[in-house]
Amino acid sequence: MDPFAALADPVRRDLLRRIARGPARVVDLAADHAISRPAISRHLRVLGEADLVTVEDRGRERHYSLDSRGLAPVQALLAELAAGPRFGERLLDGLDLEVRRTVRERSTTTATTVGPTEETA
């Protein structure tokens, strides 16, 4: 399953936050929510299919842990979005300098051209 689809549900995001603090059993996770244990188990199954959690069987209990490798596509998207504009500030400063130079040259050329006309008028 796609990690973005798995993270779209607020209950699954909440479960992931709890599991990120340390491994947890289904019973512990269900105690924090007003939904049934089978519902929590279904959410955990979705998180497992998205490679966001791992399961370890200890006797009759299942302990869920965060699998941060599943978050790689999400982290890549966030890094891409946080990268900022495609042009660096240095390039924009160079463009600003060139625009100012062109405006200055044109105003000097115009003043030279207009200058004699003003004298004759």
Automatic annotation (TrEMBL):
It comes from the Bacteria. SMART domains: HTH_ARSR. Residues 1-86 form the HTH arsR-type domain. SUPFAM superfamilies: Winged helix' DNA-binding domain. CDD domains: HTH_ARSR. Keywords: DNA-binding, Transcription, Transcription regulation. One of its GO terms (molecular function) is DNA-binding transcription factor activity. The keyword Iron-sulfur does not apply. NCBIfam families: HTH_metalloreg. This is ArsR family transcriptional regulator.
